[in-house]
Amino acid sequence: MTTLEKVLELKAKVKHLMNAEVADAMRREGIIYKVNYGVSIPELKALAKPYLGDHELALELFREEIRECKLLATMIDDPELITGEQLDEWANDFTNPEIVEQVCGNLFWRTGYALSRSIEWCLDDDELFQKAGLLIIARKASDPNVGVNLLQPYIGVIENMADTMTDTILSSMSFALREIAKRSPELCGMVLSAAQRMTQLDNELAAWLGNELIYELTEA
């Protein structure tokens, strides 16, 4: 079967699973795509299984202006074959929280460009890129193959984001700091210190998150 035939096959399967109510609900919540069939993530994961690792298929799927095709691409692609150019090209589609979560959580964090891009994106003015950077940091922090010394600088980077944080990045910032804290007692102590400073910020979300982290990490 050619790559084009696989794309057509998957598009037909996606349309068969269409859920207009879900698509409408997503649109009302501001999760906007040019075409959205409202197919659930578990259903997409099941569709992706027979094609795992098919890099060419993933490239073609992501070019489609269809939500499900783009998400399938993130589930199918081989992270070892991704180039920096592809990563940046796909990042141009960071237009809503869902696509950011799926691209970064399924794929980008497993690439050789993950750490460098995560810092770059955390320093970006665009909140969705900030969210992407934080999600990658969180996933890399949970990877035992990533050295503890590589994670330390991220605490300061994340803390510096706290003063201007909004709801868009709240959960991702929390996720990243919690995962970093789990890696070692030293990192946990550094996250606690950052959390204490966050409680003194004028930003209500930052202060709330700081208190939540202090409670969780000291209770543990």
Write structural notes for this entry:
The chain contains 13 helices and no strands. It starts with a helix and ends with a helix. By secondary structure, it is mainly alpha-helical. The model has no long low-confidence stretch (mean pLDDT 96). The relative contact order is 0.08. It has 2 domains: 1-112, no CATH class; 113-220, Leucine-rich Repeat Variant. It is globular.
Care to give the gist of this entry?
This protein is mainly α. 69% of the residues lie in helices and 0% in strands.
Number of domain units: 2
Strand content: under 5%
Please compute the radius of gyration using only Cα atoms: 19 Å
- Average pLDDT figure: 96
Overall, the morphology is globular
Strand segment count: 0
Strand count, sense and barrel status of the largest sheet are: none
Q: How helix-rich are the residues, as a percent range?
A: 55-70%
Question: Span from first to last CA?
Answer: 53 Å
Number of helices: 13
Q: Topology as H/E string?
A: HHHHHHHHHHHHH
Which parts are unreliable, with pLDDT below 50 for 5 consecutive residues or more?
none
Helix/strand class: mainly alpha
